[in-house]
Amino acid sequence: MSAKYTPDYHYYRDRLRGQAYPYACLDARLLRQNIRTHLQRSGTKFIRLASKSIRSVAVMEMIMTTDEKFIGIMAYHGAEAIALHEAGFRDILVGYPVADPGLLRKIGEAIRGGAQICLMVDLPEHLEMLEAVGKDLGISFPVCLDLDCSSVYPGLHFGVHRSSVKGVEGVRRFLEQLRSYRHLKLEGLMGYEAQIAGVGDTDTGFWLKDKVVQWLKSRSVAEIADRRQQTVELMEAMGFSLRFVNAGGTGSMESSREEPWITEITVGSGFYQSHLFDHYRQYRAHPALFYAVPVVRRPRPDTVVAHGGGFVASGATGKEKAPQVYLPEGGRLVANEGVGEVQTPIIFSQGPLPALNDPIFFRHAKAGELCERFNEILLLEPDSIRSLKTYRGMGWSFG
Ligand SMILES: Cc1ncc(COP(=O)(O)O)c(C=O)c1O
Questions:
Q1: pLDDT value at residue 4
Q2: Of 263, 259, 258, 227, residue with least CA distance to 243
Q3: What is the per-residue pLDDT for 1?
Q4: pLDDT in tens, 180-222
Q5: Considering the entire predicted model, what is its pTM?
Q6: N- to C-terminal Cα separation, the chain
């Protein structure tokens, strides 16, 4: 992308004229720029794609083929991992545990047939279930230990509530158990520092909170680095030889890449660059994916109403989970209505209002969730527009 590429409302409106509303558009030039940004940010580490934040096989293939540093996928569901294997992907790590014995059996059968799928574990029950299925099928399940990487301060749990394996002693106990099983093979360690990777720390609209989060993050980064190092050393001392040590996410690459024992960083959101990821001190990327809904009403001289567009993001509820009015610039939502199921009023502080049937472009708060609303994404190239299927367009739905 040349430095001069600065697409604005009129550019997108005119290039996309005639497309049936609502539609999602991926600006290919901005996507390529974001890919380059994240390759640079990864330093010497490999990158694993967080499929949940992309949710399109076609887009994942586009990204994977740009560089050898993209080594595999972090899937978010066991059934998805099988589907990705069948679609031709290699080195699939399921980032979250599977607790359904029927599904584990299907994954086991896929592994027996040559699929490269590694499963996440952190509870004794996970191990027991996998061992039982592995024994039955006569296979060894590749597994990855999920290390809790939250920081606990007086009165504050800074991180997520996921893994039950906490601290080096917790790891030791877990590994003692793991090694007693004959149908499990420890391949990797994952230590996901959600409080660094997934929490914005600048320009969130709350200056003081940003400063506190920045300070908490800097403390937590050092603590988690120690924890991961000690865990890797313990694993080696206990005789385990790891194929990978996974950490991080889009928001933490600058700190995750500093730890020598980490081999790969998981990245997803930074490719589409959904708006929650505009609030990280360490990096900037371009809004590559957005969606359009048409203007259908004009109730006041400064207000238009768009048809629909209410695609609110998951997670703790808050205003920041609403889509952002992206283009034309200067539009804002009405506090009492927000983004509507079918009608979304938008107030403009200046300029001529978009005409009837013109698009209002929105950005989603989170990256992959938008794909659950559309069967296809319009890939906007400099001289063409082509349609890429989303997971939903392929009939894939994994919750
Ligand atoms: C286990 C794990 N790793 C990495 C990530 C990072 O994904 P992204 O780059 O989309 O923020 C996530 C996101 O939630 C995650 O759950």
A1: 82
A2: 263
A3: 47
A4: 999 999 999 999 999 999 999 999 999 999 999 999 999 999 9
A5: 0.96
A6: 35
Q: Tell whether ligand 1 has an atom less than 6 A from the beta carbon of residue 271.
A: no
Ligand 1 centre to CA of 268 (Å) is 7
Task: Locate 395 and state its tokens.
Answer: 């009939």
Is the CB–ligand 1 distance for residue 274 below 6 Å? no
Ligand 1 atom at minimum distance from 267 CA = 9
- Residue by residue, DSSP assigns 347-390 as EESSSPPPPTT-EEEEE-SSSGGGGGG-SEEEEEETTEEEEEE-
Determine if ligand 1 sits within 6 Å of the CB of residue 276.
Answer: no
Measured from the CA of 367, which atom of ligand 1 is nearest? 10
In the numeric block, the tokens 């989060």 are attached to 213
Tokens in use for 181? Answer: 């099983």
Q: Which are the contacts of 208, defined by CB distance < 8 A and separation ≥ 6?
A: none
Q: Which atom of ligand 1 is nearest to the CA of 96?
A: 1
Q: At 22, is the secondary structure helix, strand, or coil?
A: coil
SS3 label, residue 247:
strand
Spatial distance between the Cα atoms of 258 and 224, rounded to a whole number of angstroms: 12
Fold of 28-271: TIM Barrel (3.20.20)
Q: Hey, where are the domains in the chain? A: 28-271
CA gap 25, 278 in Å, rounded: 19
Residue owning the nearest CA to atom 12 of ligand 1: 249
Give the side-chain half-sphere CA count within 13 A for 54.
27
Gap between the Cα atoms of 177 and 38, Å rounded: 38
For ligand 1, say whether the CB of 95 is within 6 Å of any of its atoms.
yes
For ligand 1, whether the C-beta of 269 sits within 6 Å is: yes
